[in-house]
Each structure stands twice: as C-alpha cells, then as structure tokens.
Specification:
This protein is α+β, with helices and mostly antiparallel strands and 142 residues long. It has a single domain, classed as Immunoglobulin-like, CATH 2.60.40. The protein has a 6-stranded antiparallel β-sheet with strand order 4-3-6-1-2-5, with no helix packed on it. The protein starts with a helix and ends in a 6-residue tail after the last strand.
Length: 142
C-alpha cells in the first residue's frame, strides 16, 4: 500500500515539473494569400529547366502575390499550398498541393514569390486556385 502511494506521488511530481518547464508550443499561423498571378522566368532562371525527377523539358514560371500575416509576430517557414491547372483544366502538379515556402512573413501585408516548373507540353495560360500558406510563430530547427 505504501509503495503504491509513493509511485503515485512521484508520478504527480514528475508531471507537475514537466508542465512547468515545457518549451513553448509553436502553433501554425495561417497566412492569407491574394493577388496571386504568374509570369515567365528570366532566361537565366529558365535555362535548362526540367521537371522534378525527370529529364523532360519544362517551362519556368514565377508565382507572385501578397501575403497577409494578421498576427503581430513574424511567421517563419510558411508552406505555400495551392492548385495549378493548365489551359485544358488538367493539374500541373499531380497529387501535390504544397508548392514551396516563404522563409519569413512579417506582420501585415508583404510580397511573395515562388518559382515553379511546368512540363513544356502543358498549355498555358495557367490557372492558380486555392492558394494559402501556414507557418510558425518561432524559428523551426533544421
């Protein structure tokens, strides 16, 4: 009986100490993306472009827009999600909605840009849909 009480007491003590000294949680902060558009890459960026995992020729584009961070803190490592379709309404990035990231989004509204490669056989104009981002309120260790 005495041993069981000691185990419960020690367990409660460990839980209490862990709660008091736990590191702060890094919650995801949602970033609203607007005015999302694209343009061709410069020749220097586009030279030798191939699609991921292959040697198939690709067209290079820069996706740009505005990122709105409504929190009062910078957001780090914000992943950009969205869907891109070609002129025939076919997906450009099969089974992939994470398109890239923004290293830092300051509070307020700021510009962002993202480089993408699209297989050369997919017709333009591209349609950009459902763009959003989410990042962390503190630096994420790498």
């Amino acid at each position: 009986m005495y041993r069981g009480f000691t185990v419960i007491l020690v367990t409660c003590f460990i839980v209490l100490i862990t709660c008091l000294w736990s590191p702060p949680a890094l919650a995801l902060t949602q970033i609203k993306l607007s005015n999302v558009t694209y343009h061709d890459c410069s020749e220097a960026l586009a030279e030798g472009a191939v699609t991921s995992g292959s040697t198939m020729a690709a067209n290079c584009f820069i996706v740009t827009g505005k990122a709105e961070n409504a929190s009062n803190k910078p957001v780090y490592d914000a992943d950009i999600f969205g869907r891109i379709y070609d002129a025939n309404n076919e997906p450009v990035m099969q089974n992939r909605t994470r398109l890239g990231s923004i290293a830092e989004v300051p509070p307020g509204i700021s510009d962002f840009e993202l480089r993408i490669s699209v297989p050369a056989n997919q017709p333009t104009p591209l349609r950009l849909k459902q763009f959003k981002a989410a990042g962390f309120s503190g630096q994420v260790r790498r």
